[in-house]
Design goal:
By secondary structure, this protein is α/β, with parallel strands linked by helices. It has two domains: 86 residues; 170 residues, Rossmann fold. 57% of the residues lie in helices and 10% in strands. It has a five-stranded parallel β-sheet with strand order 2-3-1-4-5, sandwiched between helices. The two termini are 25 Å apart.
Length: 266
């Protein structure tokens, strides 16, 4: 995680927080090392401070021109400020993605994660890490048994609570089609006094089917023939959950909606 922190920090220092977010989330998804986030802020601070200190040493070099020293002062100051920012406490939040397969949950989550610098945790990745199979391997029926699904959602929520406790915004990317699991997320948010949102993605059924038929190179094993079953078993949002829901029609200009809404989270 110390090495990961250096790349994350340096990308952010160069104004590319979007790339640092993609890099970090890709690393976490393929390694399953979400617990490493508990020490990431420490290493981010350390790496930024070391870069600042090393740059500051140029000021004692008699062979460096005054112009180069001025540039070094600006660079070192930038890294010192960044190191200080990493030490500042921040409040996390939990964002639940919800919707049928092909509704655009992961696409929206990817986009939103870069906007607000959130940790995105996909249930597909959690499920396969728990089963100790490669993310690129298609799971058998056992991987999607009720017992495996319960284990997956339980661990997904545990990870979400742990990540939020470190001050990160976290996007839990799953169907969340059962009231029980949505209620557990609400309880976690209340217990930790953190905001919670439910982004319910939806689109016409034929659009969902087309997307799933065209899907390639994704870790999800969902196919179009699961849609009717998912529709039949999905539990509607109850009155309590309605206050947390943000409806996202992914067949329209959803990016503009997410852009506007995300400003309230930054």
């Amino acid at each position: 995680m110390s090495e990961i922190a250096f790349t994350v920090m340096d990308l952010e220092a160069r104004g590319r927080r979007d790339l640092s977010n993609i890099f970090l989330n890709t690393y976490l998804e393929y390694t399953g090392d979400w617990s490493g986030l508990t020490v990431l802020p420490l290493y981010l601070t350390r790496q930024a401070y070391v870069r600042a200190k090393v740059t500051s040493m140029l000021l004692d070099d008699p062979n460096i021109s005054s112009q180069e020293k001025q540039a070094a002062i600006q660079t070192a100051s930038h890294y010192y400020r960044l190191a200080w920012q990493y030490t500042k406490p921040s409040q996390g939040c939990i964002i639940l993605m919800s919707g049928l397969s092909g509704s655009g949950k992961t696409t929206v989550a990817n986009y939103l994660a870069q906007l607000i610098n959130a940790i995105q945790i996909r249930s597909d990745a959690v499920r396969k890490h728990l089963a100790k199979i490669p993310l690129t391997e298609t799971g058998t029926a056992d991987l999607y048994s009720p017992q495996r699904t319960e284990q997956t959602y339980k661990h997904l929520l545990e990870l979400g609570e742990m990540v939020c406790d470190q001050g990160f915004k976290v996007i839990l990317d799953a169907k969340f089609d059962r009231s029980y699991w949505r209620e557990q997320a609400i309880k976690i948010a209340h217990k930790n006094q953190i905001p919670l949102y439910i982004l319910h993605c939806h689109a016409p059924l034929d659009k969902l089917r087309d997307r799933l038929d065209q899907r390639q190179g994704d870790i999800s094993d969902a196919t179009a023939n699961l849609l009717h079953q998912q529709q039949a078993t999905a539990e509607p949002f109850n009155n309590r959950e309605q206050s947390y829901i943000i409806s996202v029609d992914t067949s329209t200009d959803w990016q503009t909606q997410i852009d506007l809404w995300s400003k309230s989270l930054n």
